[in-house]
Write a sequence for this structure.
């Protein structure tokens, strides 16, 4: 009795590695993404953090340089996640690359995992460049252990922003993605206390801030450097997990809707 031949399947790990390497080269060769992702947080730090860097911020108990570095560290990593997935996915849809990938034998999971890994890698690079600049200017006063904990927390807490970016990528068109992301993401950054400490914001915004995903994400960084925000890190983790579930469900719905329009 003959046995039907089972098609050979390539190992998953090498596929992820090669796809991730291709994703990295693609993004690195686009200065509008790679240079902006690395330079923008540094530029903001030069404006907001280096001035009066050793002044203690009222109500926080930490120096300005540390606080701004932690805030912009959260901004740097989440910015890469939202823009890499949001605008990047929307642009790929506009260029019909999603059609090409659908025709390719590459599993969809490998494609998604590679994108997540490269987004995390660029987020790590952006964070390290920012910390290196702050160290070079002598405007922060934190040790290597704090830097390590800060890095691990920000990378671990970044997944909700991957889901947010993925949702943007399939809800917004390729021509409107930049405007839509900036219209939502930048006001959220200001309202979350990234550029202005939350206690200095207008009262009505300060009441909204704790319910914003970027505030909860930044709080992971603030607590790492000793800011007393009155929040609990496990509560932040619970909020971020809930945001991930909600936005991933939204992204999955948007993806299926887009796929049904193109491939059904």
């Amino acid at each position: 009795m003959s046995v039907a031949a089972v098609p050979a399947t390539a190992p998953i790990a090498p596929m992820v590695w090669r796809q991730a390497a291709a994703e990295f080269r693609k993004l690195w060769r686009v200065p509008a993404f790679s240079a902006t992702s690395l330079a923008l947080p540094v530029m903001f730090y030069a404006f907001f953090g280096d001035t009066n860097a050793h002044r203690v911020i009222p109500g926080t108990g930490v120096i300005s340089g540390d606080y701004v570095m932690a805030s912009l560290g959260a901004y740097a990593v989440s910015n890469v996640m939202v823009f890499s997935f949001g605008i990047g996915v929307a642009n790929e849809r506009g260029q019909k690359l999603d059609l090409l990938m659908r025709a390719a034998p590459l599993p969809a999971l490998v494609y998604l995992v590679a994108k997540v890994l490269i987004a995390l890698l660029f987020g790590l690079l952006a964070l390290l460049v920012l910390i290196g600049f702050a160290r070079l200017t002598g405007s922060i006063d934190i040790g290597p252990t704090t830097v390590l904990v800060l890095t691990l927390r920000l990378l671990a807490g970044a997944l909700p922003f991957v889901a947010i970016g993925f949702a943007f990528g399939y809800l917004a068109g390729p021509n409107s993605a930049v405007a839509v992301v900036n219209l939502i993401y930048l006001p959220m950054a200001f309202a979350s206390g990234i550029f202005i400490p939350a206690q200095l914001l207008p009262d009505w915004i300060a009441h909204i801030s704790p319910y914003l995903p970027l505030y909860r994400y930044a709080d992971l960084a603030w607590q790492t450097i000793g800011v007393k925000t009155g929040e609990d890190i496990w509560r932040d983790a619970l909020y971020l997990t809930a945001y991930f579930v909600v936005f991933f469900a939204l992204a999955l719905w948007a993806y299926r809707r887009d796929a049904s329009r193109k491939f059904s």
Notes: The mean pLDDT is 84. The radius of gyration is 20 Å.
